[in-house]
Amino acid sequence: MQHYNYPIPKHTFHFLSLLLTHSSKLNTMELSKLTLEIFSKLEQQWLSHYEASTKTRILSIDGGGTTAIVAGASLVHLEDQIRAQTSDPHAQITDYFDIIAGTGIGAILAVMITADDGFGRPLYTVRDAVNFLAENNRELYKPKRAGVFRRRRRFSARSMENTLKRVFKRKEGEERLLTLKDTCKPLLVPCFDLKSSAPFVFSRADASESPSFNFELWKACRATSATPGVFAPFHFSSVDGKTSCAAVDGGLVMNNPAAAAVTHVLHNKRDFPSVNGVEDLLVLSIGNGAPAKRMNNAGECSTSMLIDIALDGVSETVDQMLGNAFCWNRTDYVRIQAIGLGDQGKDDEKVLNERVLESLPFGGKRLLQETNGNRIESFVQRLVATGKTSLPPSPCKLPP
């Protein structure tokens, strides 16, 4: 059995001295109150040390939409708060999270902030990634010329692919494109493989095991963004050509990849040997907006609305499941979401000022007084208390 020896703070010594010196003069009620206060202080100190030494931190970013308004605002505020609370102007999200997962446009953000610059640091800050999406949105989601009988808008796959290839290079003109192994933190990106009729998850852990599961980063982003009817299925292969897929949007099965990330950590003992259950995890799940209106004025659902319902349904189901899993310690699981959001429906300030709608264990939701911004700030306090991550950088990173 392991024993823990923690220094007792001065105020606790004061209480102990008081208890020993004056115990004969205190009545039963006063003695009980003082004893409770002493052990509350000791318990807080023990929990603080225990949490700081064991929690594995997960960041999950939903897919949905083409602008990432909610995710962008939340991530920028998250990184700003990390810098403010650590007094480190160069701190980044990857310094305080052990694994990052993303789907669709959330995957583009996740991959950009985990791509390795060649020295074990992120190639892009969150602001870089969010600005990239804003400045290159028309190239990523460039409408194709519509045919006579085509009613639904489709996007150019070539335009998206060229834009992604450009961003996942370390310098202009470099030939080599970054792969899953070129990330400074473990990464998960889901898609759905039409060949096997099953989900396929891009994983740095798998990439480091075999080149047959190592893929270029732009391909992971392209695959998870291949929404049926908007993009054609994306055919791609691994760096050694031995694994191939025909992918469509990961949002169809994992629009909220938080559950996939939790499962991955629980079963990956090589990278996360200290994790035995959800009590060892600290999870931040960031949504990407949910439309409040589900039907048109005639009371009918269009095809695009049905897709939105399916994507939101996946996200909300995962949120409910994780809410149940963390019901004994709800501060270990935090969900950021905004309701009633179209692609241009909210700005950063509105997203952060929106009140939190929290899923209750075993069903239902409740509206809290706390805002999304408040919740991120509280989460960062706990995040910073756990210290910087100690995981190794990219598995292909050579020591200096």
Automatic annotation (TrEMBL):
SUPFAM superfamilies found in the cross-reference section: FabD/lysophospholipase-like (SSF52151)
Keyword NAD assigned: no
A Gene Ontology BP annotation from the UniProt entry: lipid catabolic process
Keywords: Hydrolase, Lipid degradation, Lipid metabolism
GO MF term list: hydrolase activity
Recorded family membership: Belongs to the patatin family.
Record protein name field: Patatin
Source lineage: Eukaryota, Viridiplantae, Streptophyta, Embryophyta, Tracheophyta
